[in-house]
Amino acid sequence: EIVLTQSPATLSLSPGERATLSCRASQSVSSYLAWYQQKPGQAPRLLIYDASNRASGIPARFSGSGSGTDFTLSISSLEPEDFAVYYCQQRSNWPGTFGPGTKVDIK
Amino acid sequence: QVQLVESGGGVVQPGRSLRLSCVASGFRFSGYGMHWVRQAPGKGLEWVAFISYDGSNKYYADSVKGRFSISRDDSKNTLYLQMNSLRAEDTAVYYCAKDYVSSGIFDYWGQGTVVTVSS
């Protein structure tokens, strides 16, 4: 099973700042990596799929990069609604596995 | 717009059974694979089961294999999860999720239904 590690566990930032979240896979997942956002009491929402493709309706301030084992989710300028938990997920090997999440909270 | 609405959760004793439902709307249900994903209290996300668009392929997490069964009724636009021999560690919010063209990408999620296994 492919294990995903996310860092940092918590990221404390102010609105308007840039957020950079990391996801590392225990073996190559090619570009088969997605990012999801989850707010308290809500279901996850797909942000990015296949490493760098924004899902429908996702603002341009969200971007993804990387391939192989190292991936990054960037939020160019944090809006108040962006403070949430972010999960990465690989679909290279069945079943798809999720990382433990990075919480982005308000500094 | 795509909507997924789960139901059927509740409090159940260890060893008992429960069936979850997920009613889909806003897309051609019969054309897409579907998943169940769960989240234990305060924890991360765990994929549980998948059924292909035509019901011919079904896959399960090792943690539920032999106890849970996924099925679908396209005439009712409904996905099911039959959960037998429930354990305390099955306590979680259960989400149904639509698959993005049988890719293992979860592009739409329901709001979840809570299952609590406790004596």
Description:
The complex is a heterodimer of chains A (107) and B (119). With 107 residues, chain A is mainly beta. Chain A has strands spanning 4-7, 10-13, 19-25, 33-38, 45-49, 53-54, 62-67, 70-75, 85-90, 97-98, 102-106. Chain A has no helices and 11 strands. Chain B is mostly beta strands and 119 residues long. Helices cover 0% and strands 51% of the residues of chain B. Chain B is built from no helices and 11 strands. In chain B, the strands form 2 sheets. In chain B, strands 2, 4, 5, 6, 9, 10 and 11 form a 7-stranded mixed β-sheet that branches. A 4-stranded antiparallel β-sheet of chain B has the order 1-3-8-7, with no helix packed on it. Classes of the chains: A mainly beta (107), B mainly beta (119). The interface between A and B is medium-sized, with 23 and 19 residues.
Fold topology:
The complex is a heterodimer of chains A (107) and B (119).
Chain A: E1 4-7, E2 10-13, E3 19-25, E4 33-38, E5 45-49, E6 53-54, E7 62-67, E8 70-75, E9 85-90, E10 97-98, E11 102-106
Parallel strand pairs in A: 2-11
Antiparallel strand pairs in A: 1-3, 3-8, 4-5, 4-9, 5-6, 7-8, 9-10, 9-11
Chain B: E1 3-7, E2 10-12, E3 18-25, E4 34-39, E5 45-51, E6 58-60, E7 68-73, E8 78-83, E9 92-99, E10 106-109, E11 113-117
Parallel strand pairs in B: 2-11
Antiparallel strand pairs in B: 1-3, 3-8, 4-5, 4-9, 5-6, 7-8, 9-10, 9-11
